[in-house]
Known about the structure:
The chain is α+β, with helices and mostly antiparallel strands. It has helices at about 1-20, 195-210, 225-230, 235-245, 260-270; strands at about 40-45, 55-65, 70-75, 85, 90-95, 105-110, 115-125, 135-145, 150, 160-165, 170-175, 180-190. It has three domains: about 35-110, Immunoglobulin-like (Sandwich); about 115-190, Immunoglobulin-like (Sandwich), CATH 2.60.40; about 195-270, no CATH class. It contains five helices and twelve strands. α2 (about 195-210) crosses α5 (about 260-270) and α4 packs antiparallel against α5 (about 260-270). The longest helix is centred in the N-terminal third of the chain and has 20 residues, at about 1-20. The N and C termini lie far apart (about 130 Å). The model is unreliable at about 1-30 (pLDDT under 50).
Amino acid sequence: MRLTFRSLSVMATIAITCYMSCSSGDEPQPFDCGTSDLSIQLGTATNPTTCGTNNGSIQISAAGGQGPYQFKLDNGAFGSSSTFTNLGGGSFVVTVKDNKGCEKQLAAVVLTAPSGPSANASTILSQTSCLTPNGSITANVTGGQLPYKYKIGSGAFGSSAEFSNLKAGNYIVTVEDNAGCSITINAVVPSNTGVSYQTQIKPILEANCIKSTCHDGSSALPNWSNLSTVQANAQNIKLRTGNGSMPADQVGTGGLPQSQRDLIACWVDDGAKNN
């Protein structure tokens, strides 16, 4: 009986001890962050010195709530530092979180980088010589940090703002200043070569394209003996003679000489005139 009584007593003691240690009064209670006085303030915002340098910074402070605080920039991870460095120009969101898990945001902290170079109207000279291209583009740029460097298309950068010996066409000029800021300039070199249809283009068509049953009006093919038909198909003629798919009987043999391809292209770019 005594053994049984003692066992029950021990069991009772253990049961009471367990009950006491698991009391609901010891469970952490959820906190209503809507009632928190947590706040966040912008301390300083330092703009980057140039648009090509990420040396801007944001410093913030927090108050209220329950410390310690943690901070994050945009979608980054929370950390203990309230200062964010190595920033470029842009708009940023800073978030603070306190020890209770409450968060406050400071949205749209804007850092503004100094403007880079800006482009004025380029100086453009038409291509006036067909077989020896002489068009040119001179980029006119202001602002940013000197000196500038320039490139056209996928070429290499250089110090000259002028690009010469250009054929008629569309070009993209990129200008980069000393801070690494860049702009692109779209420029069109017009064609004004004066290539004559009567004395230069027509003889090429007659010798290479206008043949029996081929572009002579005796078949369904366009009649290249008719100037208006040639003018209506001018862009296609330029494309196909340029890539060697016309004249048809010369495909695979090199096509027209480059000088004749250039003359056709110049005449088309001049506006396919009846001259």
